[in-house]
Amino acid sequence: MQRSGLNSWRSGNWLGLLPASLLLVLVTAAGAGRAVVVEDWTANRVGQRGIPSGWTGEGFGRRADYDFIIEQVGEARVLHLKSQNEHSTIVKDITGKVRLRETPILEWTWKASVLPKGGDVRRKETTDIAAQLYIVWPRFPALLRSRIIGYVWDATTPVSTVVRSQKTGTVTFIVLRSGSKDLGKWLTERRNVVEDYRDLFGEFPENPTAITISIDSNDTQSTAESFIGPIIFREK
């Protein structure tokens, strides 16, 4: 189910390459037509720890350390996430900000540094993931009927796997990256959210009302580490 357009760059000297790469994402988005930057982390000061400004934490009854920090790399800011035997999730309200008929392409940058040992989204007992970005369509009752697409970097599940969460039936994972092949490299992902939604649910989506970022390592009782940069919805 993975489509073309998933671009990556190798970062032998990523401190030098990353700022230009992240800025290129923004410039390209602006130059290619309509674009909505839903997060670039500039509302947060460098060194800010915990839940970033504009986001809320979702503990789901689990231990959540929110071991997050805003970092400056050249002219770009990124969110650095760490997890040690815990599960941290943050949510941002994007109600009214994204119109999928106008900007169906979701684009973001991320990097995974440490994958949870033995993580596998296909099994309830090992659903730990270092890098996760979710698009949310709440529907009443939320716990039963909401629709959530999770774009993830899994430790073992093969790329292009599409699988419903064994823990939360409202979540469908799409595995974009797998294993250690690209660890330590900044990557840019692009997904047509409308096409993904149609493939999964057989209809055109309403506009999403939230995005979620998560990192967890509690099932495998291990550690995980990742980074995420700008998050953009764009026309093409």
Structure description:
The chain is mainly beta. The chain has one domain (7-234): Sandwich (Jelly Rolls). The chain has three helices and 14 strands. It has helices at 14-31, 142-145, 193-201, and strands at residues 7-8, 35-39, 56-57, 67-73, 76-84, 87-93, 105-114, 131-137, 147-154, 162-164, 171-178, 187-192, 210-216, 223-234. The strands form two sheets. Strands 1, 2, 4, 5, 7, 12 and 14 form a seven-stranded antiparallel beta sheet that branches. Strands 3-6-13-8-9-11-10 form a seven-stranded mixed beta sheet. A hairpin with a 6-residue loop joins β10 (162-164) and β11. Mean pLDDT is 88; it is low at 1-21 and 23-30.
Descriptive keywords:
236 residues, mainly beta, Jelly Rolls, 3 helices
TL;DR of this structure?
The chain is mainly β and 236 residues long.
**Cα-atom Rg, whole angstroms?**
16 Å
Number of helices: 3
CATH superfamily caption = Galactose-binding domain-like
What is the succession of H and E elements? EHEEEEEEEHEEEEHEE
The percentage of residues in β strands lies in: 35-45%
The N- to C-terminal Cα distance equals 19 Å
Oligomer: single chain
Please report the first level of CATH classification, the CATH class.
Answer: Mainly Beta
> Care to count the β-strands?
14
- Structural category is mainly beta
What is the total number of structural domains?
1
Q: Mean pLDDT score, rounded?
A: 88
Main sheet, how many strands, which sense, barrel? 7 strands, antiparallel
Overall form: globular
Helix content: 10-25%
- List the uncertain runs: 1-21, 23-30
* CATH third-tier fold name: Jelly Rolls
CATH architecture: Sandwich
